[in-house]
Every structure is written in structure tokens, then in C-alpha cells.
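Hi W.,

Here's what went into the run:
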Amino acid sequence: MAIQLMIRINRNSTVTFNPDPLSANTLDQIFWVNNDDTEPHWPGLVKSDGNINPTFFMPNQIAPGGDSSPIFSPSTAATLDYACSLHSGETGSIIIS
Amino acid sequence: MRRFLLIATVVVLSTVSAYAQQQPICAPGRDLLTVPEIKSKNGKLQGVVMLSDEQRSLASSATGSPCNLQQLRFFSGYSTQDPVTPWPHTGDILPGPTLRAHVGDMVEIAFLNQVNTSNFPNTLDQGEQGKTGPCDVSTATRTNNPNQTRQIYPRNDSYPNCLHGSSTANLHFHGTHVTPSTTGDNVLLFIRPALRSGNTVEPSTDFVMQQFGEVFRQCEAYGSPQQWSQLPATWTDSQKQLLQKYDSTAPYKGVNGALPADMKLWPRNDARLAKGQWPQYSVGAYPYCFKVPDYASGQVKMGQAPGTHWYHAHKHGSTALNVGNGMTGAFIIEGPYDESLRNFYKETATHHNWGLREQVLVIQQLETALNLLSPTNRGGPAPLSVNGRLTPVVSMKPNQVQLWRIVNTSSRNFVEFDSFTKHGQGGQTVSWRQIAQDGVQFSFTNYQRIGTINGKFNLATGNRADLLVKAPAQEGDYALQVVQSVSDLPTGTPTTLLTVRVKADDKKVDPPMDFIAQETDFPKLPAFLADITGPIHMKRDLDFDTTPSSGRSGKGQMPLHEINGKLFDGHDVDQTMYLDSTEEWTISNRTINIAHPFHIHVNPFQIIEVFQPNTAAAKDPTNPCYADPTKPATWKPCTKITPPYVWWDVFAIPTARQDALPSTVCTELDKCPADIKDFTACTNGTCTVTIPGYFKERSRYVDFTGQYVLHCHILAHEDRGMMELVQVIPPLPSQLDHH
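Here's what came out:
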């Protein structure tokens, strides 16, 4: 039985993802919530060449106060690094077992 | 006014003291939780049902492990007539407050939706996120290329028959015979979450309670409103402003305030209001107000059956997830039935420590992540809980009889009550006798022939049963064994639903309590619950069928669950009945592994015939009851149900049976006998016949006109289209009796 796992995007002095890293099992359902009331954010997969694929997890940015869509449900065990495709330096990872 | 200010103060306090659990606790075998009640007083059930959210402990298996904190939407509440007690935030996924009214009462429930939408994915219609449709969406990594994703949902599901909009809600008062319109048992409402800025919500609780005080006063005086304009203008104006505010600020493609015109909500309300219709969209709150009809008043043709009913969220597209979150509660409606039972078991000078102790047991199947949104299911269906806990312990005294009111609120699983384990010398055990089904008491005849001692019964989703449960003299723990399924003929390994702990104290039950044995002691069946007689004005056939999934990989399709070959469309009325008419429906099932539970709102029905093609007798060619796949005339029950009939409001349609036809009968569809062709499919020279299971029911469409629904009560099927819109309309003048 899968569960839902939320990653909060928080703004304090910097923008952080919480929890980071996120531990998940395959088939769990992962989503992001943008708690930053001032700016949108857009987590995308960090590829092996270091570039970001912005549409890997979601086709659009997350509006201030909004949540991501679609839900991401990993099929295989892996560690996925992600970063905001709108703002440099905002990074996180998901460890899937 | 003073009363409502008090209420408002308490609500604000409860909102700001949001519960935050640190460590999840899912251990099975803890004491049963008693759900707080809202009781009617002076003919009025007045209270608040609040929808909000918090972290709670969710078990992923019946063992309690893994146990995770999950953010869940939940109902809490309180009576506005009693001194307010805080809602118990134990971390358990407790059902909503038990509502307890009496036939003839007014029900006045202020329903507040204060879900924080930022705690949930797919919380509003996905159209707002810029998808191609308003359905929930999920993706997964491709197994052959983890740098790419593929869509898992919605695939071939399409709006409105898809999972969507799970923070919008309403309340269905399941089992009530009340108006389905306006402020009654109206499931066509979309009550959106209150608009939120930080910890501030609009409409505020203070404002809602002030406004609803006036709504309920008018409702008491004149009945449920007929027109939206009958509500206070201050309320209707504020709702218009809030919907317009939502329309101008909602996100679209990740940008706030960019919602396209065709996705705005106020214009939809405005269009209905222009036609004199009741609007469907509200923000933050809704005033439920209706009268529970009393047959003895002489004002109705069908009274409300006193008994065990329930309520739950019923917004199309999110019923499965919402009920999986625990958005359910028991709704007890008392009447002569209860009074008779309490009188029989009352404590007297010669009956020491008697008295009818009652247990309200809400069976739940709790989950936060529907497997339809994951690439495959993991670990099977969610485990069963009772009142928020796994295999809880119910306390009884030796030789005590209790009244158990059981509601199966599972979104999927049926629960067959099998037996209690035995204990001690002589193998003593707890025993039961069923006295009511779906909130309608048995006649004494059915108590004798169906409510036998430890007679097995199968609760499909939505079914209820009232039991007299008797503890043995021997102290000890007795485990209630149940079989879970989605079948009318459950098989499988029993599991423990709960444990009865029999333990003596200094208040000995003396003499031992026992089951009612004499007809004169059994609750008298009210006249309106006698068998339906008189002319049948209309007969109808409904056919439930599932086209199986072709998988969730590649171009795989989601399963289709249809009624009469059609999905719910949200607009067309599928069945129209005349007020005061009596009808007989044959409801069949061509699905071989799922006994779709048929449910219709407002009016219960009597089962007069049941055909189960998968019984041993029906499958045995040497048995006189054999259902021969080549002879449709044999596709009927071997034994008849004799009156008096049992009332139900959910009935699992027996599963179908598929048999291969001998090649001597046919190998191609065109050459198959005409009378079985509609039930036959041929592939590669082999033809199979599907023998549908079915039941026949009779019902009276009395007292209330209006639109409501019938549907499969496996709620993911309902959300995805196995539902019909029905209506009851006044009869034409030519159809009225003139004698």
C-alpha cells in the first residue's frame, strides 16, 4: 500500500526543500508544495550532464502557495537529484528504495 | 446570538490548536475508541461538522507496520446545544462525530470545509494547473529509461468520471429518507475549501455561524428552502463574492489569477440561478437543514426507518479518496425500535446491572494514496480499522448482551462476519443475532430465520447491521473472524476485525442477559415497513458491467465500470420515476469477479429475488438448481425468497459466471443459439457464455421529488462513472388516482 509524501518548498533566508533528502519506496506518491508566497518554483531532474530537465516531474512551475501536478510515483529504486529550474542553488534529492 | 458567539470562539480555538503528531502509532489491539456524539435535543439535531486536515497515523498493513504519519482530511464536530468538549486529537483516524437524532427531528448541520489545500496534491481540479482536463494526473519513471516519465493516470479516464478535486466535498446522509434537494441529502453540491491566507479563512467561522443561525431558523419555520433567494442575502452575496474572488485568483499553469473564463465557477452558479435552479458551488460552508420524517405524523407516505445509518463525503471524483481518508461517520436515528430494545433490557430490581450498552462500530479502510495513481498496486488493499484503530478491543461483562451498530464504510472491501474464536472449557464463545439490516429492523419472522445465532452475514461497502451480541460466562479474549472480499460468495482466510475482552467487575450481570426469544418482546415492525404491495407501475432493467483493465504500461487502458453500457455524464437523467409510484427493478451484473454493490439514495428497497450463478448448486450439472449456460431459462434462482422481505439500501449484485460452450453448440458467434448470443463471446473457435447474476427489488418513490443518484458503492467505480442520475417528478394529472 503506497503512501503520499510531500516536499515543502520553504523560504527563510534561502529557499530550501523539506525533507531533503526525501526517503521513499517505489510506487509511493510524491508531490511538492510551494510555501513561498512570493515566487514560483519549478523542481526538475538534474541530468547526468548537470543540466536540468524541468518537465521531468511537472510540465509547469508551481505558483506561490500552490502544489505540483502531476503526482510522481517512482517505478524503480534510484537516487534522483533535482533542482529548481527557475532559481540556481535550490537543490534536493529523493532516495527511492 | 450569544450561543453562536460561543461556538465561534471554540471553533477558532480548535483551529489554531492544530494537532501535530511526532511519532506514528498504529499498534493493533488497543482499546476501542468511542466516537464523540452530536445528540438531538428538543427535536433538533444542531451541530457543526468541520472538514479540516492534520497528520495522523496510517497503517499500511493489518499488522500495523509500516506505520506512517500522513496528512489526512478529516471530519470533527460538536453539538451547538451541549457544552463544547474538544475533539480528541489522538492521532488515530477517528470517524467524524456520530450523529444521533430521533424520527421527526429537524437536522441542522453547519458543514465547514476548511481544508488547507496546500497540504494535498491534486486537491483542486487539475484544469487549474493547466492540464488538458480536470482529472488528477500521475506519472512514473520509465523502467527502461529512468530519465523519462510516463503517464499512469488518467489514461482513458475523462472528466467527470475520473479522480479529481479531492478537497471539494459535500455530505451524503446515507440511509435517510429525506429531500434530495437544496439543503437536504443533496450530493450534487460542490462545497469548495474556504479561501485561505495564512491562518485566516474566508468565510470566517464567526460569519458562517451567524448566517446559518438565520438559515436554520427559517428552515424550522418553513422547511428546507426551495429557492436560493430564500437564504439571507448577506450569505448569498458573500458566496458570490468569494466565488468571484476564487475565479480571479486561482492558479492556472503555475500562475495565480490566470484562470480561463470557461473554468470559472461563479458563472456556473449564475447560469443556474438565472433558470431558477439551486446553485451547485459554495465556498467554505454549507447549511444542511432537513426534517427526518416521522410516519406517525400522518404527513408522509414512508417514514424514516429508525436505525443505524451513516454519512460520508460524496463529491463525484473524490469519494474513494475522501472516504479512504476517513471522511465518514455514523448517523443513528432513534425511534420506537430503540425504545423497545432498551425497555426489554432495562435494569430493574430483579435484573441487576442490566441495561442495553451500545457500541457504534465504524469499519474503515483507510488510505491516502489510491493505487490507481501508482504504476502497480503494492501489498493489496488497505487493512480494515474500526473507529480508527486496527483490531481494537471491545469490553464486555460475562453474560452481558450489547447492541452493536455496525457500519461498513470501506471504500472497497466487503466484510463477512464469520465467527468468534472459542475459549476456555467447553469452547465458550461470543454469539450474536442480527436484528436489522441497513438501518431497518427485521420483522420477527426474519429475526427467526435470518437472525439466527451466529448466522453469517456479508456487509458490502455501505451496508449496516445491528446485532445483539452476547458475552459468555467465561472471561477471556474472543477474536471476531471476518472474511474480506468483493464477492457475494466470499472465500479466503479469515482475519481478525476486533477482539471482545470479557471481564467481570463488581457489578455482576444477574440473571444472565440473553437474546430476545418472544415475538411480544421484539420491536414491532412499523406499518410503513410492511411488504410493498399493490400495483407495480413500472419495471426496469439495469445492467452493471466491467471491462477489465489492459494494464497500466504502454497503451494499456483503465478498466471501465458502466451501467447499461454507459458512464455517468453529469447532465442526462438516466431514470425518471413518478412521485408515489411503485417500481420493480431487475439489476444484473456481467462482471465475473466483482459483486458491484448497488446503492440508490433516498428510498430503501425490498429484495424479492436473488440469483447467484456461482453457488455450488448452480455450477453442478447434476444438481436440479444447475444454471445451464446453453439454457437461459435456467438462469434464475432455485429457491424463492418468501415474504416478509428485507429492506436494504445497498445490495451486492451477485457475480456473473463464465462457462466455455461445447464446440458442438457453436464455435463462432454468428452460429450460436439466438437466446444466448447476447451473452456469448468467441475467440479462436472457443465460445464462452457469461451468465449474469441478478437481484430484483421493489421500491416506492414517495414523499420527495428531486434529482439524486444510484451507483456502485465500490467508490473508485462510482468516481469513475458507475453512477446514474435519477429524478422523481410529480405525476401527470392523467396518472393520478381519481377514486
